[in-house]
User: What shape does this take?
Amino acid sequence: MKHTNYEYRIPTIKKPVKLNHLRGFVVKYLSPTDFRGSRVKITDTRHRESVVLSYDYRIGHTTQQAIDYLLKCGISCDAFTSNDTTNLTTILSLDFETPLKGTK
Assistant: This one.
């Protein structure tokens, strides 16, 4: 059985729902402007901090670049979800302590 760190009780359901409480990082592609090239923005939804990175063409994918950055910061990447309508990805982590380095 997978470890869970949160139990949600619904009065109409006898068995509690076991969930992981996760920290989210929203990943967004920023288009180039007249003055700046393509960029990747990572926003920590829990701590309301963000970092903007130059787009890395060697990696070639915003989600992969964000995962690489978070791992280098020491933040685990435990799951992700994508929204095809907004083209945003949210990377989820069980790590609530490690700061998002280079925050602005």
Summary: The mean pLDDT is 90.
